[in-house]
């Protein structure tokens, strides 16, 4: 068990963004879409999504990839988002002046975002193989090793199969 932790330490690179002014719920909506995807695919998704949370997440992923290429010498084309976390940060509290000398409290939520990238080129020649390392990366999709197809979580409502709401 100890060897696995040491090996992951040298194959994973992370970037941490703290005190980002948005609620954790809005940031998780974006993070759930990109978890387990490749670096290049993630950048395309984030550029096309219309949410305000995409820009700080885009900057964090770009920073984590720069850390991987500069500090560890990894190739950006073989990077995969292995872990993406959003935690709640401290709430900034302000007072807004109102009529008749009263004040109105304003609460600005913040969040901490952690992006972890893994180099999958190191896992292609291992005993477990590329597909086994990818199977544990994404919780919302699983890969069938015989047909190399990805199946997403679906649910049935009114006779129609719909995608999972995330």
UniProtKB/TrEMBL annotation:
Pfam families: Ribosomal_L22
Parts forming coiled coils: none
Signal sequence extent: none
GO CC terms in record: chloroplast; large ribosomal subunit
Gene Ontology molecular-function annotations: rRNA binding; structural constituent of ribosome
BP GO annotations: translation
Cellular localisation: Plastid, Chloroplast
Key word Chloroplast present: yes
InterPro entries given in the database record: Ribosomal_uL22, Ribosomal_uL22_bac/chlpt-type, Ribosomal_uL22_bac/org-type, Ribosomal_uL22_CS, Ribosomal_uL22_sf
Alphabetized UniProt keyword annotations: Chloroplast, Plastid, Ribonucleoprotein, Ribosomal protein, RNA-binding, rRNA-binding
Tree of life domain: Eukaryota
Function: This protein binds specifically to 23S rRNA. The globular domain of the protein is located near the polypeptide exit tunnel on the outside of the subunit, while an extended beta-hairpin is found that lines the wall of the exit tunnel in the center of the 70S ribosome.
UniProt subunit comment: Part of the 50S ribosomal subunit.
Protein family membership: Belongs to the universal ribosomal protein uL22 family.
PANTHER family reported for this sequence: CHLOROPLAST 50S RIBOSOMAL PROTEIN L22-RELATED, LARGE RIBOSOMAL SUBUNIT PROTEIN UL22M
Protein's name according to its UniProt entry: Large ribosomal subunit protein uL22c
